[in-house]
Amino acid sequence: MADFTDDLGPTLWIVNSVFTMVATVTVIGRLAARKVRRMAFGADDWIICIALLLNWAMFSLAARAQIHGMGKHISTLSPSQIKTFTKNLYFMQITYVPAPRP
């Protein structure tokens, strides 16, 4: 039987943090390589920078959702937490598709 008091929020936060950092380091490495090779900053570079900003937005929304109950069983949340969590989840879904994932 599942324990309704389990909180997977910290685990979700760690996973989100690691992948956000991997994406950030990758984009920084890409831009640094362009600069070292003296290559022009192209449309693909602008797009990946915008996608990285969306990834950071999704990360901040996920962190906020975790504070308000993401990772916990819904029966342990207050109506206020559920309302705030679902609002954050909605906006996370909007940023999910264009955000880069390694």
UniProtKB/TrEMBL annotation:
<comment type="similarity">
    <text>Belongs to the SAT4 family.</text>
</comment>
<feature type="domain" description="Rhodopsin">
    <location>
        <begin position="30"/>
        <end position="98"/>
    </location>
</feature>
<dbReference type="InterPro" id="IPR049326">
    <property type="entry name" value="Rhodopsin_dom_fungi"/>
</dbReference>
<feature type="transmembrane region" description="Helical">
    <location>
        <begin position="45"/>
        <end position="63"/>
    </location>
</feature>
<dbReference type="InterPro" id="IPR052337">
    <property type="entry name" value="SAT4-like"/>
</dbReference>
<dbReference type="GO" id="GO:0016020">
    <property type="term" value="C:membrane"/>
</dbReference>
<keyword id="KW-1133">Transmembrane helix</keyword>
<dbReference type="Pfam" id="PF20684">
    <property type="entry name" value="Fung_rhodopsin"/>
</dbReference>
<protein>
    <recommendedName>
        <fullName>Rhodopsin domain-containing protein</fullName>
    </recommendedName>
</protein>
<feature type="transmembrane region" description="Helical">
    <location>
        <begin position="12"/>
        <end position="33"/>
    </location>
</feature>
<keyword id="KW-0812">Transmembrane</keyword>
<keyword id="KW-0472">Membrane</keyword>
